[in-house]
Write a structure and sequence with these properties.
Blueprint: E1 3-10, H1 12-20, H2 22-39, E2 42-47, E3 55-58, E4 65-68, E5 77-85, H3 89-96, E6 106-112
Length: 123
């Protein structure tokens, strides 16, 4: 079965809204994870730390440049993910529509190519 990554993307506003009801959001998210486990589709799920604690390594120039967060020019931030093993893109979309997310958030659904689809190094 194909794997799909449900990428949680939020804005400053949606992240702030989520934090106002964090206990409820965490309980709802735990329940959602349990549903995916029972359905046998969840491979992994992780949230990410505050973007202000991260860095970006930028390869635009000749030498990589490291910049501390937060990233003022970023409109949406990658906040975490669910990795699912499902039968189709449509099934992944149906799970994505059920993700507990604050208003203004987005869930990006991306297929993870299988190892047979990645170009192999020829020796």
């Amino acid at each position: 079965m194909p794997k799909y990554l449900l990428i949680m993307r939020g804005t400053d506003e949606s992240n702030a809204a989520m934090m106002t009801n964090i206990d409820e959001m965490m309980a709802t998210t735990r329940q959602f994870i349990e549903e995916m486990v029972k359905a046998g589709v969840l491979l992994a799920a992780e949230g990410l730390d505050d973007p202000g604690k991260g860095v970006v390594v930028d390869f635009t120039g000749e030498v990589p440049v490291v910049t501390d967060g937060p990233y003022g020019e970023t409109k949406e931030l990658f906040g975490g993910f669910f990795l699912l093993d499902v039968a189709s893109k449509q099934e992944a979309v149906e799970w994505a529509k059920r993700v507990p997310a604050a208003r203004g958030s987005k869930i990006e659904v991306r297929r993870v190519p299988g190892s047979d689809e990645v170009p192999q190094v020829r020796e």
